[in-house]
Structure formats: structure tokens, C-alpha cells
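Quick one, probably user error.
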């Protein structure tokens, strides 16, 4: 719900800054890459949108549903699972479009303060809250931070579940629930924690891009 609140804020900001619809549609179907690291950012965006490890999770969720044993029932179930995954990816696509459109429109707009110009020159997760100031005002940084925390928790949970099903299905490793959760979370968190301690917020932001490129 917190992530959807964040999405609503970006859509609200989208209605205020009003990016040119023609350019947005053109960018969707005729993408262009400019600037240093643009190719890497594009691959990272694809990886963050699709998150291939979630495909294992979606497949495993089929086992938790009561699917009729008939041929018609199985076909209908596969159709519903396809709609479910497709809807989730479509919503994620809309959110990404809103974020990118707002970022581009605000940062290339007129009457930007010197501080905002400096932020736009090196836009990252820890300084992007100003993009929502038209909707949220002074509270933009608080709501943005809470939504980032919720998004991180969501990614961690899905990653843990996906790892659990992979361990059970491919590696045939079975262990106690608390031990499995502890091990998978430590494997996921330890590298990020080390990089964050050594490299700070810039290092953590760069690690997110690298990880997204790898899964893309």
C-alpha cells in the first residue's frame, strides 16, 4: 500500500508538471540513449521492471492455488496466472513511465533553483524527493523515504521466497523455516551492507544499478 501511495504521488506530480505526451509516447517506441552510463541505466531499468527471479516465484505460487484437475480447469488457471503476472508488470511499467517522465520534465524545466539543478546533475535515490514537492510540499522527503523502505521490503520478501522455492525445487535442499530465512536474508543483505558501510549512499546506489543490470 505504501508503494501504491508513492505511485499515486508520482502520478499526481505527472498531472502538475504535464510532460509532453507526444514525446513520452515517442520515447516508449523509439528510445534514445544519451549521456554516460545510459546503456547501463536502460538495462538496469529492464531488470528492475521484470525481475526474472520473480518468474520462479510466480510459477511456485501456482502450487498454492486449488486448480481443477480437468484439462479445461488447467487451461483456465494458466490464463488467470498469465493475467495476474501481466497486470503486475503493467502496473510496474506505468510507475516507471511516471517516474521517468516526472524526472525528465522537472529537471529540464525552467525556473529551477541552483540546488535543484545540482541535484538533477547527479540524480539518485537519496536526492530525488524534491521531484514530488509540488504534490507533497515539505513532507515529500518523509513520504519518499517511507515508500523507498516499503519498496525495499517488498523486493527483499519476494527475493527470499524465490530463493526458497529454488532451493526446494532445483537443489532439493530442505531445512527449518527460521534457518532458511536467516540464511537467504544474510546472503542477500551481507554484500549490500558491506558496500553501504564502505561506499556510503553513492556506493549503495551504484550497487542497485549493478544488481539490476545483472538480473536484466
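Nope, works fine. Designed sequence:
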Amino acid at each position: 500500500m505504501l508503494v501504491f501511495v508513492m505511485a499515486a504521488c508520482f502520478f499526481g506530480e505527472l498531472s502538475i508538471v504535464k510532460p509532453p505526451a507526444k514525446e513520452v509516447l515517442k520515447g516508449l517506441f523509439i528510445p534514445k540513449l544519451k549521456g554516460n552510463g545510459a546503456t547501463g541505466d536502460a538495462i538496469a531499468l529492464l531488470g528492475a521492471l521484470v525481475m526474472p527471479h520473480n518468474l520462479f516465484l510466480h510459477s511456485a505460487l501456482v502450487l498454492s492455488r486449488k486448480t481443477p484437475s480437468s484439462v479445461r480447469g488447467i487451461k483456465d488457471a494458466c490464463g488467470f496466472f498469465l493475467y495476474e503476472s501481466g497486470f503486475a508488470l503493467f502496473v510496474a511499467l506505468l510507475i516507471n513511465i511516471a517516474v521517468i517522465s516526472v524526472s525528465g520534465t522537472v529537471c529540464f524545466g525552467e525556473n529551477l533553483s541552483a540546488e535543484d539543478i545540482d541535484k538533477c546533475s547527479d540524480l539518485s535515490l537519496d536526492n530525488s524527493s524534491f521531484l514530488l514537492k509540488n504534490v507533497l510540499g515539505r513532507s515529500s522527503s518523509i513520504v519518499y523515504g517511507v515508500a523507498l523502505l516499503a519498496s525495499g521490503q517488498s523486493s527483499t520478501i519476494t527475493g527470499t521466497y524465490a530463493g526458497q522455492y529454488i532451493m526446494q525445487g532445483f537443489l532439493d535442499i530442505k531445512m527449518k523455516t527460521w534457518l532458511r530465512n536467516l540464511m537467504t536474508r544474510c546472503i542477500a543483505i551481507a554484500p549490500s551492507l558491506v558496500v553501504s558501510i564502505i561506499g556510503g549512499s553513492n556506493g549503495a546506489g551504484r550497487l542497485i544499478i549493478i544488481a539490476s543490470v545483472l538480473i536484466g
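The CA atoms of residues 160 and 187 lie 10 Å apart.
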